[in-house]
Amino acid sequence: MNEIKLEPQPNLNRRDFLTKSSIGLAGLAIAPGMMLFDLAYARPLGEPASNNVRWGMLIDNNQCETGCNDCVTACNAENGLAGGTKATDSQWIRKVQLKDKLTGHVSSLPMMCQHCENPPCVDVCPTQASFKRADGIVLVDKHICIGCRYCVMACPYQARSFVHEVLIDQKTEVPRGKGTVESCTMCVHRIDKGETTACAEACSKAGHNAILFGDLNDPESAISKRIRAVASSQVRADLGLNTGVRYEGI
Amino acid sequence: MKIVIRLAAILFSVLIASVAYAADTPHVSHLDVGKGGQCVEEPQLMRKIHMNLLKHQRDETMRKGIRGQKYSLAECIECHASTKTNSVLGSKEAFCQGCHEYAAVKLDCFECHSNKRKVVVEASK
Fold first, then answer.
1. Minimum Cα–Cα distance from A129: chain B residue
2. Residue B49 near residue B56 (C-beta atoms within 8 A)
3. How many inter-chain contacts (A to B, CB under 8 Å) are there?
4. Residue A31: pLDDT over 70
5. Mean pLDDT over residues A172-190, rounded?
6. Is residue A216, in this structure, part of any structural domain at all?
C-alpha cells in the first residue's frame, strides 16, 4: 500500500517528503491493531442515508494477490450466495485476471458493482426498482423488480445477476429471491451499522489490504487521502459514470 | 300448518346454534405464537393492518436507508417464530403460514425474506 513512498523521489526536498509520507501513512493505521476503516461512523437509527456521504472503495491492484479468492468467499458467506460460477449463478463479486500481452505480467482484481454516480442500470429500469441511495449505493428494490433484466444488459461491468431458481435459507439481512436481479449492495446492512464491507474485511484479514472502503466525500477519510495521494483510475472512465469503486495500479 | 311452523322454528334454532358454535371455535387451528409477548401495536390492529405497516416501512428502509423503526419483518419473526422450529412457516400452526392459509391470502414475503429467527432460541425441552 505504501510502496509508492519507497521509490526514489529526486525532486522532493525533505519537507515535502515528510508531508507526503504522513498523508500516505495516515491511511494505514492510527494505532496498532486499529485500522482506519473502523472509523466509518454509523448513522443514528431512524435517520435516512445522507448525500453528504458517498461510500466508495479503492482497490489496490498491486496488493491484490493472483489466486487469492478471499473477498469472493467472504461476500458469498455474508450475503448467502451459493458460490457457483455458472452463467446462471449469482456472482456479486468475482476475480478477474489481467495479462499484459507485451510484458506477460499477470495480475488480478476483484470486479463488482462499481456503484456509479450515473448508473446506467438505474436509467434503463422500467419500474424504478434499480435505484441509487442518497449515499451513492446502487441497489435493486426487489419488491418492485419485475425481472426484465434490462439492467443486466445495461451494466458495462457485468455486475448484475438474475436469480433463476427458488432460494431457501436466505440471510435475514440480505433478502434474495427468484425472478429478481441482484448485485453487490456494498454490504449496505453492515455499512448502516457502521461496519466495513465483507470483502474489505476479508482482504485485510488475509493480510493484503487491497480493498480500502470509506467515504469519498469526507476529505479526511482514509480513502479520500489515498486517492489524493496516489494515481487511481476508474474502469471504463470513458463512459463518464463516475464509479464509486476505483482501482489503483491498473 | 302448526307442524310447519314448529319445523321452521326448530330449523331456525339449529341454524342459530351452529352459527354460534362456528363463532366459538374458528377453523384456524391453534397458532404457535412463538415467544409472543407485547406486540408493537394492539393484536386486533395488527391482524388488520400489519401488511400496511410493513409495506410502508419497507420502502423507507429500502429506499431511504432508515433502519431501526418500530415495524420490522425481522422483529415479527423474532417474536413469533416457533420456539421449536425457529420459523414462522412450515405447518398449520406456524404463526404466519397458519393464519394466511386460513384466510387464503398468498404470503409473498418469504420467497425472498428469511422465515427463520436470526438468533436461534434453544428449543424448549
1. B63
2. no
3. 54
4. no
5. 96
6. yes
CB contact under 8 A, B63 and A133: yes
Q: For residue A130, tell me if it sits in a domain.
A: yes
Counted domains in chain A: 1
Q: Which amino acid, one-letter code, is at B4?
A: V
Question: What's the pTM?
Answer: 0.78
Of A30, A69, A15, A36, nearest to A203 by C-alpha is: A69
Residue for grid cell 521509490? A7
pLDDT at A250: 84
In tens, the pLDDT along B19-76 reads: 555 555 556 668 889 988 899 999 999 999 999 999 999 999 999 999 988 999 999 9
Chain A residues with CB inside 8 Å of B77's CB?
A: 172
**Residues of chain B neighbouring A168 (CB-CB closer than 8 A):** none
**Helix (H) or strand (E) run with residue A34 in it:** strand A34-35
Query: What domain range includes position A239?
Result: 35-248
Residue of B nearest to A188 (CA): B65
Using a CB-CB distance cutoff of 8 angstroms, which residues of chain A are in contact with residue B58? Answer: 143
CB contact under 8 A, A47 and B114: no
Residue at A17 is within a domain: no
In the block, cell 414462522 appears at B88
Angle at A165 (CA atoms; ends A160, A167), nearest 5 degrees: 95
Q: Do residue A170 and residue B63 have CB atoms under 8 angstroms apart?
A: no
Where along chain B do its domains lie?
28-112
Specify the CATH number for the domain of residue A198: 3.30.70.20
In a domain, A236, yes or no: yes
State whether ipTM is beyond 0.90.
Answer: no
